[in-house]
Amino acid sequence: MRLTRRYRAALCAIAAAVLYFAGLGRPALWEPDEGRYAEVAREMIVSGDYITPRNDWVPYFEKPPLVYWLTAASLKAFGANEFAVRCQAAVFSAGQVGITEALGEALFGTATGLFAALALALSPLFFAFARFATPDPALAFFFTAALAAFYAAATSPSFTTVSGRRWMFTASTMLALGTLTKGPVALFLAGAIALAWLIAEGRICDSLRVPWLGCAAIYLTIVMPWFVVVAYRNPDFLRFYIIHEHLHRYLANREHGWGPWFFIPVVIAGTWPWFYFIPRSVPGLWNDGVEDNEHLRSRRRAALRFLLLWFGIVFVFFSIPRSKLGEYILPAFPALAIMAGWSLASLAQLPNRRANQMLTGLFILNSIILIAAISATLVARRSLSLGLRIDLIVAACGLFAGSGFALVISLWSGPRLTSAAITFGVLVMVAALMTARLDAAPLYSYRELALEIRPHLTPACKLASYHHQIQALPFYTGHREILAGYRGELAPFGDSPGASASFIATDNQLASLWSSGSCVVIIANRKDLPHLRKLLQPTASIIGCEGKKFALFNHASSESSSTAACH
User: Fold this and answer.
1) How confident is the model at residue 137 (pLDDT cuts 50, 70, 90)?
2) pTM to 2 decimals?
3) Interstrand relation of 54-55 and 58-59 (parallel, antiparallel or unpaired)
4) For residue 33, is it within any domain?
5) Are 339 and 371 in a shared domain?
6) 206 shares a domain with 89
7) 205: containing domain
8) 490: nearest Cα among 469, 474, 510
């Protein structure tokens, strides 16, 4: 039985899910992002309030609630653990692989779709965030689905046909869900790409045929209920969400500040080695089918323009603000994956000499990466007190070996099987990077510290952090984290009703709580220990440590082997 496009897309999604779910719950929650999203979802369950998101019991409106809702459902289904927290990211990433396969196949054929799915699923940055609990994989999924639906509508006989209207309504639904994931950025960017493409194709008048009323009705029906209810319950919500979270954050925020060049290395490294094949796809697709009929050539050029506008508009939009994070560029990856997929699919059609030259270039570049990885690992082992093994070297060896095998295969029997060798190398690379994440746990995670202090935390105990916040600490301990001398990102709504118990303003107030006789545990950075030893009476007992964090207890405690190591 021949598989239809739908089944091929589903199989690609299932294969990606197998990769993403393998060992998904092993790493501890990454600070601060994974801890934050896990705790907001947990507090929804505990409070029963699914309208107002709260972080450490302080109203928290940086993101809309869809991912919180899904994470809360996962926590209920699988328990309060890392697997449940990351489940939504893995599901959405696998789904995006399936959509990319279907779109690539619709644009340029079956082989392109399958190779596009491969390139996206095993792009290092995409793979990493498929196993990381943030809203970005969900946003990228809805964004990709919306653009794929729009393109299906635009290439149907007309937007006004039953098929065209159905696809546009699907696109509206996806954009609404994207808005509930991370705000109106999905609507703005997808609309800009669609409009720019219609203009480039000389079809701007077709925009008048879009069923705007139906699309708007679907979008508003999905989006508006939560925004209306949360604004009614929290009068300052709209001002904060519109001005602070969008206008100020895009135009003025300097947190995570980087120059306009930031996404160039992120895109190249985040899609390597598949990025190497993308430059060839642009002239290749533009000239492909020249000897065929004019309709085929026009259709392929239109598809190429769509992909270039997709990537270019997302890239430029996120490069403008000073504040940048690598995961912001994920919605642009399917366009790159499809172009890389076409290049890989057509590799076997190249003359052997040209294919061998390409693979030789890839082998040389991966050799340079291997040398750089060896140097970086040696520096890291000397300068960081971590149990780093040779994960970076193993990752680079995967790329080196994969490209080397591909070159040998191409020289011996032609380039037909070279993609399999490259895929083998990339699998070695991502496996090594997964191990590197576990090795680097003391830099980003405090799960072991939380587990060490949890036996000391009775229900009446107070848990405080001094001059910082550990986002995952309430998730792991089930206790509110009192922030001493620090408010951080909770400051905008720190004076809300019920939020005051999450803060201590001064050292004197902290010392008073410590000496009150109540059970108190304080998490402090190593550099603050001398000051706290003078401030806190009775003398603190150290009951745990991890990385640069130490746990101080105001009651006597027997010393275990782990706490002895802290001293």
Assistant:
1) very high
2) 0.93
3) antiparallel
4) no
5) no
6) yes
7) 5-25+81-345
8) 469
Specify the 3-state DSSP secondary structure of 482: strand
H helices of 208-351, in order, are 212-233, 237-239, 249-251, 263-270, 278-287, 294-319, 333-345
CA distance 60 to 406: 50
Share of residues in the chain with pLDDT > 90 (%): 62
C-alpha span between 267 and 324 (Å, rounded):
13
SS3 of 215-243: the string is HHHHHHHHHHHHHHHHHHHCCCHHHHHHH
pLDDT digits (tens, 9 = 90+) for 176-232: 999 999 999 999 999 999 999 999 999 998 888 899 999 999 999 999 999 999 999
Q: How far apart are CA 338 and CA 348, in angstroms?
A: 17
Question: Which tokens go with 156?
Answer: 């149907």
The first and second tokens of residue 166, run together, are 């159905």
Q: Do residues 302 and 88 touch, judged by C-beta distance below 8 A?
A: no
In this predicted model, which residue has the larger pLDDT, 566 or 265?
265
Our count of domains for the chain comes to 3
Within 10 Å of residue 324's Cβ, how many Cβ atoms?
20
Q: What is the pLDDT of residue 1?
A: 42
- Judge whether 504 lies within some domain: yes
Specify the residue for token string 């109540």: 518
Q: Assess whether 371 and 337 both reside in one domain.
A: no
DSSP H or E run through 549: strand 549-553
Q: Which residue has the tokens 């990493």?
A: 128
Say whether pLDDT at 40 is over 70: yes
The rounded distance, in Å, linking the Cα atoms of 210 and 529 is: 64
Q: Spell out where 2-123 has E strands.
A: 54-55, 58-59
Q: Does 12 map to a domain?
A: yes
> 390 and 272 in one domain?
no
Give the dihedral sign, CA 523/528/529/534. Answer: negative
- Which token pair is 122? 């095993």
Q: Residue 180: how many CA atoms within 13 Å on its side-chain side? A: 24
DSSP state letters, 296-309? HHHHHHHHHHHHHH
Both 171 and 307 in one domain: the answer is: yes
Residue 393 belongs to some domain of the structure: yes
What are the tokens at 345?
């699919």
Strand order in the sheet with 462-466: 503-504, 481-484, 462-466, 520-525, 549-553, 541-546
- Could you tell me the two tokens for 109? 């054929």
Please check whether residues 288 and 407 belong to one and the same domain. no
Q: What count of other Cβ atoms lies within 10 Å of the Cβ of residue 161?
A: 13
The answer to whether residues 362 and 409 belong to one domain is yes
The b-or-e profile of 344-382 (16+ CB within 10 A means b, else e) is bbbbbebeeeebbebbeebbebbeebbeebeeebeeeee
Domain boundary among 314, 345, 376: 345
Of 311, 345, 379, which one is at a domain's C-terminal end?
A: 345
> Which residue's structure tokens are 């300052």?
236
Q: Are residues 385 and 327 in the same domain?
A: no
Higher pLDDT, 470 or 547: 470
Q: Residues 147, 148, 149, 155: is their CA dihedral positive or negative? A: positive
Q: What is the pLDDT of residues 48-83, one digit of tens each?
A: 999 999 999 999 998 999 999 999 999 999 999 999
Question: Kindly report the CA angle at 416 between 411 and 420, in degrees rounded to 5?
Answer: 95
